[in-house]
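Sample A.
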Amino acid sequence: MALWAWSELSALNPLRALWLTLAAAFMLTLMLQLLPPGLLPSSALFQDLIRYGKTKLEASLRPAVCRSFDVPKRYFSHFYVISVLWNGFLLWCLIQSLFLGVPFPNWLHTVLRILGAAHFQGGELVLSAFLVLVFLWLHSVRRLFECFYVSVFSNAVIHIVQYCFGLVYYMLVGITVLSQVPMDGRNVYVRGKNLLMQTRWFHILGMMMFIWSSVHQYKCHVILGNLRKNKAGVVIHCKHRIPFGDWFEYVSSPNYLAELMIYISMAVTFGFHNFTWWLVVTYVFFCQALSALLSHRFYKSKFVSYPKHRKAFLPFLF
């Protein structure tokens, strides 16, 4: 395993380098947050960039210059609008190439080549990348639906840098998936010329994990949304309450845990061995763990009766 990872790292392309850098940055940030309170970085800008929503410091504790870059958290929906459109376009390009023999557009092929997409034949199953891109698009559609019809947003905010990063993020994820497609020039290479013949056991397992994780994430978002509604489904307040049910019985942020499991399901669909995607998973792990830790601390500081057995992110561990 170590030799495989080292050999993959030695073939570092721009895309892998980018995900590795993001993963390292969030790992370092998480480690800093685990230091004793007296050793935590006191920079207002640093704290503003790693916190959003309920974990933001109170307005009175934030410098005016930081507050001037606030964007409503409800703008999260913009991330998924971009993702549905962009990744839907990438999926359409892949479908056309797979089933109609239409080559990728020149500009898209150039972008993939610059980012380090390999031109190889048969080394990677094209069905894996196709399924992962479908999963990513379906995930974005569901999250967009939840933003409009399930979640109840308060007046919470995010930093403009976080907003811009979120807009770019899903475009980057989609292009990462597409870069794993085996290519022959500008055309997709299908080993055996029959996509269904590429079906393997890990495709089925990955699909089952994706559905399972997505169902639990949806349940968790419904639970959070219902905390601000009455029995008739009418929003009555925007206050924070202690959530109960489903994975909330184990961790404070099961929606973040489910997000990680969704990305792991995609790694499984790639057949476990796609190093580029494992870098994406590593980034998602540290990013979601950081958000979960800050959320856990918020709940514990706000509610004296908060369940003692709950962990922040990983059941029974962290």
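Sample B.
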Amino acid sequence: MIVKICGVQTVEAAEAAAASGADVVGMIFAPSPRLIDIATAQEIAEAIVHTTRNAAISVGSSTSAEGAYFKTQMQQVFGKGRKRPQLCGVFQNQPVEHILDVVSRVPLDLVQLHGNEPVELARQIPVPVIKVFHIDDGFDIDQAGELLQTDCHSIILLDTKVAGQQQQGGRGVSFDWTIARKLADRGVPFLMAGGLTPDNVQEAVQVGAPWGVDVSSGVETDKVKDKAKMMAFVDGARGGKREI
């Protein structure tokens, strides 16, 4: 079970996320209360790059073409040889020039596109891309052609679509996890976010069957990353793990 802890703003929070067992540490470069500057991101990257542990995750096979493609991508990102958490930069509806500038200045392993960007944008980014798809009650996996488009993004992220909000993500709102389960039943690996907490993550994993989970506000106390909550979240996620 892959665990991504997003929205870290300090070296201390990033190190605590890594110590909790997170596989991905996320930093926000889009307009957000958790936005960080380049200098801080570089300090966080320097700390995480020197974190060492056995972090490889085994990814199995798939019978569907889409599933096989995305599982191969997951293996390349999270498989053998990985000795530390991956660093992810989160962007939302920003010019590709800005994304490339940040990637050139901060040693990111992954870029997350969290807006309405076309999936083809991922081809212009020199590191693997996590692409978000915002889910509401009317979302139809079978009609979401871009979601399963290959040779663009490497990893699918399902997150809640919050009505009336221009900036999505980090709002602590869940979606119907049975929608995610439809994708899992097709053998396609994905990450799942949206309103996850240490109290509900095990149920979310059991119902939605994601290959990984992503959390930000759910491991905060007074809008600050909470080490105990991060550890509890990781334990809860892996207690309901899906073998991959």
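B remarks: The radius of gyration is 16 Å. Residues 240-244 have pLDDT under 50 and may be disordered.
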